[in-house]
Design brief:
single chain, five-stranded antiparallel sheet, disordered N terminus, 311 residues, mainly beta, Immunoglobulin-like, 2 domains
């Protein structure tokens, strides 16, 4: 087995999909000037010109939202509205390939411009060491599906915590080697807002089914459906948030994997603090190490810095 370099171009359709060699395994429509780029910036398919716009939030480990503008391939001037676009993120590493949790793509208030949200599990490089290549595969549905692929550079999270992981105790799944392993649950910071004494913390929670599947966790999710060794029918989910790991507030389910806790105190504007998150599924409390809760391993820790007060 040996590493493969990925080509930095993609002009794709159903008749010309570039093969990839593997060695293993709400806001306005103007993107922020985050210095975020992808290669290439424009892809032509048979019918469309697909342009990757700078991300609304810089492509970074954790939650990331970017825009794509779709126009006609012939002139590049006619916005293509009402399209159904699906997103498939892939991280190509030397020894494995894996996907990442996502919300998906929907058309914004600007015709022909689509907003896509996903949750990167890892950066492209860490402390100067390349980890792999992220690939974003956009499929435009039609009588014949058309595909555009972009390769963003995903930055390492710095400062505040963008994601955390908890594990099942008796909640397990079967991995690719046929071994029974703890199921991973990923908690992503989505938003921290409010004022001192009454902050609101929104999280996106996803569960692992396999290296290629991380569905959003809802109170009606069925994980690994049809797999006799790994299937889990979710009947209850409890997400709790605390600023002192002693007094807990239950988060409200907002839908699509999003959960929000309100009325949080113990934080100060402009000052770094900590929020703790507990997760229970079907009555089982998840832990940092997959062992029974012992008071220390029973929650994830998020370092957070509330925005400074503005005059």
């Amino acid at each position: 087995m040996f590493p493969v370099s990925f080509p930095r171009f993609a002009v794709l359709s159903w008749v010309a999909v570039l093969p990839l060699g593997l060695s293993g395994c709400g806001g306005g429509d103007s993107p922020a000037d985050a210095g975020d780029t992808a290669t290439p910036s424009v892809v032509l398919t048979d019918s469309y010109r697909v342009e990757y716009l700078a991300a609304e939030t810089a492509a970074m480990e954790g939650k990331s939202t970017f825009l794509v503008r779709v126009t006609d391939a012939a002139t590049g001037s006619v916005a293509q509205s009402g399209l159904s676009i699906s997103l498939m993120p892939l991280m190509h590493m030397t020894e494995m390939t894996h996907s990442s949790p996502l919300e998906g793509c929907s058309e914004s208030t600007t015709a022909g411009t689509y907003r896509c949200t996903l949750f990167y599990l890892m950066p492209s490089s860490m402390n100067g060491v390349a980890m792999g290549d992220w690939e974003l595969k956009l499929t435009i549905a039609g009588a014949t599906d058309e595909i555009a692929i972009f390769y963003p550079e995903v930055m390492m999270a710095m400062g505040d915590t963008t994601r955390a992981r908890l594990k099942g105790v008796t909640d397990t799944l079967t991995d690719m080697g046929g071994n029974s392993v703890s199921r991973d649950y990923y908690l992503f910071r989505s938003e921290l807002s409010g004022v001192p004494g009454s902050y609101s913390f929104e999280l996106f929670v996803a569960a692992k089914e396999s290296m290629m599947s991380f569905p959003a966790l809802t109170s009606t999710t069925v994980l690994n459906a049809g797999d006799m060794n790994s299937e889990l029918t979710v009947v209850s989910v409890l997400v709790e948030v605390s600023s002192d790991a002693s007094h807990w507030l239950a988060a409200t389910e907002e839908g699509g994997g999003y959960w929000r806790a309100t009325g949080l105190d113990g934080l100060s504007a402009g000052q770094t603090g900590e929020l703790y998150v507990r997760l229970s599924v079907n009555g089982e409390q998840k832990t940092t190490n997959g062992l029974s809760p012992d008071g220390v391993n029973g929650y994830a820790t998020f370092i957070v810095t509330p925005a400074s007060a503005t005059m």
